[in-house]
Amino acid sequence: MLGSPYPGQPAVGTDYPGQAGPGTAYPDGPADGPRRRGRLPVVALALAGVLAVVAGVQAYQIYRLDSRLAATDRRLAEAQGADGRRLDGLETRAEALEKQAGAAFNPEAVASAVLPSVFRVRAGDFTGTAFAIGKPPSGGGTTLLTNFHVVESVYDGGGRKVFLERTGQRFEATIVKVEKDKDLAQLRTTARFTGLVAAAASVRSGQQIVVVGAPLGLQDSVTTGVVSAFRKDEDGSGPVIQFDAPINPGNSGGPVINGSKEVVGIATAKARDAEGIGLAVPIKTACDTFKIC
């Protein structure tokens, strides 16, 4: 040890009791580890609580969103159902209008449908018209109607054979029955033709009609008009239909057709010295007389 240069002063490096020298270790202070470890569970619980709250809020929001979406889907489904019902209603209405348009009076369509069933009749020297009516008879062939005065000369002369002519073809027919007072005659041929349909309803004034026949021997002649009146039995000869469609000799026995292609009458005469006054026997009269419709 080096001595002190000054008397009474300790030499450098002298150690005093109770004094720490260089490098002396002091006891450590209180440890922080246990206190920090005690805070971690609290923080974790707090975070878990916050996360639970956040998750709950999100779940509630998702639930509300799902509920709104479900309600929106229901409203859309209801709206689509209502639209579908409205569309169905419009389609039904459109179909009804199409049917009404189709049912509108169309003389060309009527003539096209009935002409194949209408014939020129030659009975001796007399020429008139006849048409197929109803279903085929049990023995086959075709039933036809005409006026009695068309076949009168043949019938009164004891004959029963007349001839049907159409588009260059000729078919023999037989007079089966007559009703002189009603000016009606029933014919039958072995040839097969489509029978026209008799109208079930009575005619109405103003109803549009088509008259088909062979005026003056001219086959497939078509005229149009309206029903002027339905005349009841005034002179004992039965009711008649008055119409304004032009007719001439040769039209007798031809069908008077409505817009539905049904026979409403049998053209039988026109007023002398007057235009626009034609007369027809109601088809119901012929059907009831011969029991064929």
From TrEMBL:
<keyword id="KW-0812">Transmembrane</keyword>
<feature type="region of interest" description="Disordered">
    <location>
        <begin position="1"/>
        <end position="34"/>
    </location>
</feature>
<dbReference type="GO" id="GO:0004252">
    <property type="term" value="F:serine-type endopeptidase activity"/>
</dbReference>
<dbReference type="InterPro" id="IPR043504">
    <property type="entry name" value="Peptidase_S1_PA_chymotrypsin"/>
</dbReference>
<dbReference type="Pfam" id="PF13365">
    <property type="entry name" value="Trypsin_2"/>
</dbReference>
<feature type="transmembrane region" description="Helical">
    <location>
        <begin position="42"/>
        <end position="63"/>
    </location>
</feature>
<dbReference type="InterPro" id="IPR001940">
    <property type="entry name" value="Peptidase_S1C"/>
</dbReference>
<keyword id="KW-1133">Transmembrane helix</keyword>
<dbReference type="InterPro" id="IPR009003">
    <property type="entry name" value="Peptidase_S1_PA"/>
</dbReference>
<keyword id="KW-0472">Membrane</keyword>
<dbReference type="GO" id="GO:0006508">
    <property type="term" value="P:proteolysis"/>
</dbReference>
<protein>
    <submittedName>
        <fullName>Trypsin-like peptidase domain-containing protein</fullName>
    </submittedName>
</protein>
